[in-house]
Design goal:
The complex is a heterodimer of chains A (221) and B (357). Chain A has eleven helices and no strands. Chain A has 221 residues and is mostly helical. Chain A has a single domain, classed as MetI-like (MetI-like fold, Orthogonal Bundle). In chain A, helix 3 runs parallel beside helix 9. Chain A is globular and about 65 Å long. Chain A starts with a helix and ends with a helix. The relative contact order of chain A is 0.15. Chain B is of the alpha+beta class and 357 residues long. In chain B, 23% of the residues lie in helices and 36% in strands. Chain B has a six-stranded mixed β-sheet, sandwiched between helices. In chain B, strands 2-1-4-5-6 form a five-stranded antiparallel β-sheet, with helices on one face. The model of chain B has no long low-confidence stretch (mean pLDDT 86). The chains are: A mainly alpha (221), B alpha+beta (357). At the A-B interface, helix 6 and helix 7 of A face helix 2 and strand 7 of B.
Amino acid sequence: MRITPAEVATLSLSIKVALLSLVIMFPPGLWIGWLLAKRTFPGKAFLNTLVMCPLVLPPIVSGYLLLILLGKHGVIGGFIYRVFGIEIVFSQFAVIIAVSIISFPLLVRGILTGMESVPPELESAARTLGASPFKVFWTITFPLAYRGIVSGTILGFSKSLGEFGATIMVAGNIPGKTQTMALAIFSAVHLGEDASVYRLVFISTIVAFIALWLTDRFTLR
Amino acid sequence: MADSPKIRLDFRKSLGSFTLEVDCTLETKVSAFLGVSGSGKSTLLNCVSGTLAPDEGEIVFGDEILYASTAKINLPPEKRRFGYVFQEGYLFPHLTVAQNIRYGQPDRRKSSDAIDVLEISELLQRYPKELSGGQRQRVAIARALAMEPRMLLMDEPLAALDSGLKDRIIPYLHHIKEAFEIPILYVTHTFSEVMALADEAFLIADGKIMARGEPHGLLTAPSAMPIAQLTGVENVLFLPVTVSDKPRSLTSLEMGDQPLMIPYIDVEVGEVVPVAIRAQDIIISLEPNVSLSARNVLPGKIQCLDVKNERTWLSILVGRHHLAVKITHEARRQLQLREGLKVYCIIKASAINLLRD
């Protein structure tokens, strides 16, 4: 099995995008997961719905909404184009944004579940022992929510690797620029390049398998 | 503790349909709040610790205001420096015993005195799940002491333990009372713990303080029946020992003019011992000479009869002692019990529990 340079580029783009998306989304994911698990505030249900939306919307719909927002004439895209002269859609930025939006609910779900499993009484006990809310978060909540956080992270990462619908809408399918693994498989099938399809499918399966195995390793007792 | 700070509690807190309303000043070293579950004891402690904000009022420690609704002051728990021992312990499961104890310790290099007082130096490297119930509770107490608190809050620290273990932990609590110069606010539903530890007791029911006073006086007052009803607990009596017979394994106490037999205890004749008898452990009979295995048949007179929802409560005068007795409505009807009636109280020797410090 000989992997072509184009396929290597696709794979490395996919991994790069998924990692970057994770680095960018992890801090807000942690914060929103904590808010949803531990706080009551007005608009909590709305925030939850907003964050979880991409999980139930068809990715192609999320992608279309992003396209409207980020396009040259969109609210966000238009602003960025006027100020910085950068066009977001059909760029690698667009891939990262699409992938982040779609995988964010999975990341938050994991973190939220993990944090909900931490008894609030333990956090109260830590407060009475002199710990600030910040210290309580890092010494009690975070370590005890560890399994949920790891599983959310790895599920989100895997989702990012395989994202298709939203990516193709906002980033297109430009080989070497915005073509990720999933998009490359789609193209290869269309072009009838069976050998390439097999190789890409094989690599995807291996990557997914490793991600799942890692999750279980870290989260199963 | 002449220079110990007074703690002023004057606040109100509603949780659903329940309202806690307290107005008192704690002046002694160990103040105990005695009440059944749901009486508001834990809510009280949570407000004092700062983990729950009252609706209005004030909490003052010495001359430091911890909470005042009018001035909008509510010091967060981490600024109050009150050690809190929870009924369930709440040790941090991901930390070892040593790490748990160090968690709130101001100077982490030195070893805490609490480790020696509570005899847990053998357990330091273990995780909470590797500890027995009694060990866990000792660690929880040590953790609260290691933070060098200004006051110790204890929420039923012994309730999760069986009675044998309780008896083993109480001496540790005594030791703490002596070794650490801080006030203790102790919350419990058990008479004997109040008797053993408290300098002043507060009876709490339905979110209100019903009575306060020196524990022995308060809990053995002639009007003990409402207290027995409030706390769901027994009669507490102080009786002199008249016979102490080891070979026959019997000890006899004097109650009124009657002997009260209890299982043998190692005490001198003439010594006065505190005993508790649960209100439902006393059988009422109209005849003195019934054939029963119970050793004690005491003549008395019904002074007061109170029909509550599920049970009938009797206050029976035996000699100069009052006994609170709980019976079914059915029994009251069948025996045609009424105030002023002469009856016999039948008590098994084993139903008489010695309250020892």
